[in-house]
Amino acid sequence: MSSVQSQGTAVVTGASSGIGAVYAQRLAARGFDLLLVARDQQRLESAAGELREAHGVKVEVLKADLTQKDDVLKLQQRLRTDSGITLLVNNAGVAADGLLANSDAEQLERLIQLNVTAVTLLASAAAASFAKAGRGTIINIASVVALFPERFNATYSASKAYVLSLTQSLNAELEGTGVKVQAVLPGVTRTEIWERSGIDASGIPAEMVMEAGEMVDAALAGLDQGELITIPSLPDAGEWQAFVRARHVMAPNLSRSSAAERYKN
C-alpha cells in the first residue's frame, strides 16, 4: 500500500475519545499510519484494531500521561527521531471549572502542564524534525475562548490563548521550511472533556454545541484550504480577517520611545 506509506505517520494526542478519536479516524481514511497517544491503554487498543480493520493502515498505541514530564519527554524524543512522522495533532487537553481565586493548585498545575507545557514541547520537537525534512504539519487544538476569555474559566481561557499565540509565532518561525501549521479554535464540542472537568454542560443551548465529527471535518477542510487559524463555527471568515487587520494596524504603535499623550499630565 504505497499510497498509505507516502502519507507518513500522524501522531494524535488525546486519541482515545472525542476530538482526538475523530482525528484518528479521518486521518486513517486519508491514508496516514497512526501513533495514538492517551492514558487509556484499553480504549487505544480497541480503537487501533478498528482503524486497522477499516482502513488498512498501521496503528501503534502509546500509553502516556502528558501531565507527567517523563511521558512527555518520551514522546518528544520519538517526534525528534522518527523520520516517518509527518503530522502532529496536539489535541490532549483538559478544562477547568470555578473561579481562579478558589481553584486547587494541583489542578491548575495539571492543566498548565497538559494544555501549555506538553503542547509546547511536542510542537518544538515536531518543528525541529519537520523543518529538517522540509515537510510536515502541526495542528494545535486551541479554543474560541482564546478570543473571548471573559466568558469562561480564567486558566483554561489563558491556556488556549497561549496555544493560539504559540501557533502564530511558530508559523512565522517556520516560514519557508515547507512545514504547515494550523490552530483550530472549536466552540463548545460534544466530548467527554466537560464531564471529566466536573462541568455541567447540560445548560448550554443546543445551537451552541457542535458534534466532534463535524468540528474535525471543518478543521481538516480549513487545513486543506491553507488556513493558519480555523474557527469551525464562524460563518463569515471576513470577521476573523478584520480582527487580524486591526491587530496589524496597532502594530507600529505598540512600542514607541514616548508614552501616549493621554498618560501625560
Automatic annotation (TrEMBL):
Sections of the chain in a coiled coil: none
SMART domains found in the cross-reference section: PKS_KR (SM00822)
Pfam families per UniProt: adh_short
MF (Gene Ontology): oxidoreductase activity
Keywords of the record: Oxidoreductase
UniProt xrefs under SUPFAM superfamilies: NAD(P)-binding Rossmann-fold domains
Residue ranges constituting the Ketoreductase domain according to the UniProt record: 8-184
Family stated for the protein in its record: Belongs to the short-chain dehydrogenases/reductases (SDR) family.
Protein name, UniProt field: SDR family oxidoreductase
